[in-house]
């Protein structure tokens, strides 16, 4: 219980300055509307009940972290404001003390708001009703309206109390589920710090250090993004539950992955690093390698932005959004291949070479492809070398070489080729051991080869699909 008066509660909302963006959050905005309604000249019960339930609804549909206090903590940590943006790039000691004072004041106000209970709101409503003369005897008959002590409903109780007592409480803890948001370890530590203190204003330094290590806003919240078009407007969308694959999940292709890992580590340390093309046969783990590397180094500030090939023309817009940010970004283009007339080819070529708008130091491009030469070449292109058609290009050889050279503009090219029989069975055995599947080796190999013939041929993906099937079968038999 905060013990705040209605005026104090209103002031906590209105005095927000640095974190004022939070007033536009759907949940906080509804609570703000409810408090302002209570602070009006006269309380109309039906209006109060409507606003109360609108706030409760928004909280329950928006909050996956449990309590209302957890919700406020999540929103303030990931809010992008003048303080968080500045703290992303400079140490706490270099931030103006007046800004720190404003931040501390806001944090104390947000703490007071986060401690507000449904029981307190109901009591404030009763006080308002009494002051308006709607129920003169309500206040004296007001019980403790917590769930534990709530008295049975009685027809002799004032009608206003009967209505208020039926309003739902928001002090509940949601049960965890498999689709929970994926947050960083450093975020969890920041949550623990704020939960363990009664004055958030004293924790401005800890918040500043969090932003300095993790970036701010959505780049602190998410590790993975996709560039997509929503209602005709292209934007970055954070992935709540990204693919959780880690490097330790892989069996085989260690040498190929090592080259990509070493390049990524150089990038994170601020050393010269190269754009990377991973090409080879389908199902060999090219895309999974990139995702696993980002998961492995997220705590070091690595982020991934996937850009579909059709949106490569938006590359400059993406670069402008992440230029100058604290985090390091891998721009990921999966399954890369172009028609010779595509404009996106020219854009990517310009970015790789360094056009007028250079690729910033905190950005690398990782792409995967099943093709060694990324531009599709036709026999008609070669026919242009000896052609009687006046519309054919005179220097056709130069054009063809330009098409074939795009892959060479990646500093590092890593080849993922289909495994031979020995390598394929090695992956199968490794995955089976990783999952604790106890099966005779000869039988395992025989079934794996049978699966490979029936389905997609030898690849790391085929090996995983076989082990998935095998594990399901073994568990079904043991039931």
Protein architecture, described:
The chain has 479 residues and is α/β, with parallel strands linked by helices. It folds into three domains: 6-170 and 180-220, no CATH class; 224-416, P-loop containing nucleotide triphosphate hydrolases (Rossmann fold, 3-Layer(aba) Sandwich), CATH 3.40.50; 421-478. 48% of the residues lie in helices and 9% in strands. A seven-stranded mixed beta sheet has the order 2-1-4-5-6-3-7. β4 (302-306), α14 (315-322) and β5 (328-333) form a beta-alpha-beta unit. The two termini are 51 Å apart. 31% of the residues are buried. Mean pLDDT is 84; it is low at 136-143 and 391-398.
> Major sheet: order of its strands?
2-1-4-5-6-3-7
Give the uncertain stretches in residue-range form.
Answer: 136-143, 391-398
- Biggest β-sheet strands, sense, barrel: 7 strands, mixed
User: How many distinct domains?
Assistant: 3
Determine the fraction of residues in helical runs and give it as a percent range. Answer: 40-55%
Shape estimate: globular
Distance from N terminus to C terminus (CA atoms, Å) equals 51 Å
Proportion of residues in β-strands: 5-15%
Radius of gyration over C-alpha positions, nearest whole angstrom: 30 Å
Structural class: alpha/beta
Question: How many distinct helices?
Answer: 20
Order of helices and strands: HHHHHHHHHHHEEHEHEHEHEHHEHHH
> What's the rounded overall pLDDT mean?
84
Say how many strands there are. Answer: 7
């Amino acid at each position: 219980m905060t013990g705040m008066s209605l005026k104090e509660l209103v002031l906590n909302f209105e005095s927000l300055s640095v974190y004022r963006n939070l007033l536009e959050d759907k949940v906080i905005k509804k609570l703000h509307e409810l408090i302002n309604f209570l602070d009006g000249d006269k309380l109309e019960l039906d209006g109060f009940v409507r606003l109360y339930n609108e706030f409760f609804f928004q909280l329950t549909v928006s909050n996956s972290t449990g309590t209302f206090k957890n919700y406020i903590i999540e929103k303030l940590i990931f809010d992008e404001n003048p303080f968080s943006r500045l703290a992303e790039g400079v140490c706490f000691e270099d931030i103006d003390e007046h800004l720190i004072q404003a931040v501390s004041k806001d944090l104390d106000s947000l703490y007071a708001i986060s401690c507000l209970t449904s029981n307190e709101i109901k009591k404030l409503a009763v006080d308002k009703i009494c002051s308006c003369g709607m129920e003169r005897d309500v206040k004296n008959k007001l019980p403790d309206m917590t769930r534990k002590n709530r008295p049975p409903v009685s027809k002799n109780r004032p009608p206003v109390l009967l209505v208020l007592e039926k309003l739902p409480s928001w002090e509940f803890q949601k049960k965890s589920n498999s689709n929970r948001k994926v947050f960083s370890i450093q975020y969890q530590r920041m949550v623990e710090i704020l939960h363990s203190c009664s004055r958030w204003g004293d924790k401005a330094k800890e918040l500043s250090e969090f932003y300095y290590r993790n970036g701010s806003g959505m780049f602190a919240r998410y590790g993975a993004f996709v560039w997509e078009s929503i209602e005709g407007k292209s934007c970055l969308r954070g992935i709540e539950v990204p693919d959780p694959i880690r490097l330790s999940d892989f069996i085989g292709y260690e040498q190929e992955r090592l080259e990509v890992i070493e390049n990524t580590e150089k990038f994170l340390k601020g050393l010269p690093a190269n754009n990377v093309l991973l090409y080879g046969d389908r199902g060999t783990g090219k895309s999974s390698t990139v995702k696993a590397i980002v998961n492995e180094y997220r705590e070091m500030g690595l982020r991934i932005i996937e850009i579909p090939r059709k949106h490569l023309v938006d590359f400059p817009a993406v670069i402008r959004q992440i230029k100058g940010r604290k985090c390091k970004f891998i721009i990921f283009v999966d399954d890369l291949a172009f028609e010779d007339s595509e404009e996106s080819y020219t854009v990517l070529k310009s970015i790789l070479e360094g056009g007028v708008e250079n690729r910033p130091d905190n950005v690398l491009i990782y792409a995967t492809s099943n093709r060694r030469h990324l531009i599709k070449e036709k026999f008609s292109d070669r026919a242009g070398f000896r052609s009687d058609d006046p519309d054919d290009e005179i220097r056709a050889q130069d054009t063809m070489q330009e098409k074939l050279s795009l892959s060479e503009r990646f500093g590092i090219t890593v080849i993922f080729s289909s495994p031979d029989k020995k390598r394929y069975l090695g992956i199968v055995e490794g995955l089976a051991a990783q999952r604790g599947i106890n099966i005779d080796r000869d039988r395992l190999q025989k079934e794996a080869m049978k699966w490979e013939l029936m389905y997609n041929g030898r690849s790391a993906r085929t090996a995983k699909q076989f082990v998935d099937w095998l594990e399901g079968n073994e568990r079904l038999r043991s039931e």
